[in-house]
Structure formats: C-alpha cells, structure tokens
Amino acid sequence: MQFLVFKKMIEPLQMWLLTGGRCVGCGKELKLGKRSRKGKGEDFIVCECKRVYVYDNAGKKYRRALLNELS
After folding, report:
1. What is the pTM of this model?
2. Which residue in 2, 29, 47, 48 could disulfide with 23, CB within 3.0 to 4.6 Å?
3. What own/partner pairs with CB < 8 Å and gap ≥ 24 does 29-32 have?
C-alpha cells in the first residue's frame, strides 16, 4: 500500500523531468548522453548514470526504454 502512495507521488516529478529533457535519476540533460539510432525515427540515449531513454524525433519527447527494447 505504501509503495503505491510513493509511486503516485514520484510519478509526476519524473514526468516533469522527462518533459524538460532531464534524467529522472541524476537530473542531467539527456542531450548530453550517448546517442545511438534505434530506428523508426527514434534514438536510444544512455545517461551518465546508465539509465536508457528513447527519444522520439517526430514528437520530440523522451521516455524510459522498456526492458524488451534493450535486448
């Protein structure tokens, strides 16, 4: 139960960081991370803290990469 309350509190903060182009772990700008082509108009971005994000070139939005996308 406490986990769900914590998740509801932290999720808006993480979304705010992502819309600003910042890592949810360390707060650094994602445009400074290592970029590699994923395909379909998307790029993988690896932050210095090793979190992996996907950048949608068409929508110009960031999101966390799913586990099945990394393999």
Report:
1. 0.85
2. 47
3. 30/55, 30/62
What DSSP string runs through 11-50?
HHHHHHHHHTTB-TTT--BGGGSEEEEEETTEEEEE-TTS
Point out the residues of the chain with pLDDT beneath 70: none
Are 53 and 44 within 8 A, CB to CB?
yes
| Residue 6: strand, helix, or coil | helix
Q: Which of these, 10, 21, 33, 26, lies nearest to 63 by C-alpha position? A: 21
Please compute Rg for the chain using Cα positions.
13
Candidates 43, 7, 38, 39; CA nearest to 24 is 7
